[in-house]
């Protein structure tokens, strides 16, 4: 007797579930964009929890919210594992490792609080999402994509630098005083204002200040370039590989190859 496996078996259902997750992760249709918007809102809420952590740390609700976020990130990481085509692709994604570290900081807040500032990287994920690109295109502002991403990168670095300075140098100060001092120092250092009224002690403090100034200035320059640079579109030339062209370009400026750049419609 020959038995035939039903199409409604576990394997087809699993592949259907994986395809749905991949569609949500990278799709541009209405359903995928709604889910991406939902995940983006959750990411912003997690960032808000990180920013208001110094105010909530003494209350009983802090650990409850902390572990709820841990459950969410753990579930999201599990779904990302299911949706990944291969383990190699999954392990090459920066957000995979960042989420693992974030999950560890949430599960062991008393031990790994020094790495809590990495939660700001959730905002970086929003800046590199399909939702942002498609949203700006549908709103009629596709030329602002590079500007918005440069601004998000600057904000992410500001949050990360503030978090690192706070947990490394000002964590034991009462209430919100330590976090405000860390934010004040970071902004003054990134903008090279250098009031000097708040400084970081020791060699580690000096090195932190140097790195903050160098990276902060670089990100400011990158943002300025994105603002003043003429509008370009990302379209690789089939001959020479040049990535950026004028939106109405017919020929590649580098090699003269005829281009067929699609319009801004989806």
Work out the helicity level: 55-70%
The largest sheet is:
2 strands, antiparallel
Regarding quaternary structure, how should these chains be classified? single chain
Q: Which value, in Å, is the CA radius of gyration? A: 23 Å
Shape: globular
Domain Potassium channel: 155-227
Organism: Pseudorhizobium pelagicum
Protein name: Ion transporter
Membrane topology: Multi-pass membrane protein
Can you summarize this structure?
By secondary structure, this protein is mainly alpha-helical. 64% of the residues lie in helices and 2% in strands.
What this model shows, in words?
The structure is a single chain. With 266 residues, the chain is mostly helical. It has helices spanning 10-26, 30-51, 53-56, 61-83, 87-91, 94-107, 121-127, 130-139, 145-170, 177-190, 202-228; strands at residues 232-234, 244-246. It folds into 3 domains: 6-140; 151-225, Orthogonal Bundle (Helix Hairpins), CATH 1.10.287.70; 230-266, no CATH class. 64% of the residues lie in helices and 2% in strands. A two-stranded antiparallel sheet has the order 1-2. It is globular, with a radius of gyration of 23 Å. Its main location: membrane.
Tell me the layout of helices and strands:
Blueprint: H1 10-26, H2 30-51, H3 53-56, H4 61-83, H5 87-91, H6 94-107, H7 121-127, H8 130-139, H9 145-170, H10 177-190, H11 202-228, E1 232-234, E2 244-246
Antiparallel strand pairs: 1-2
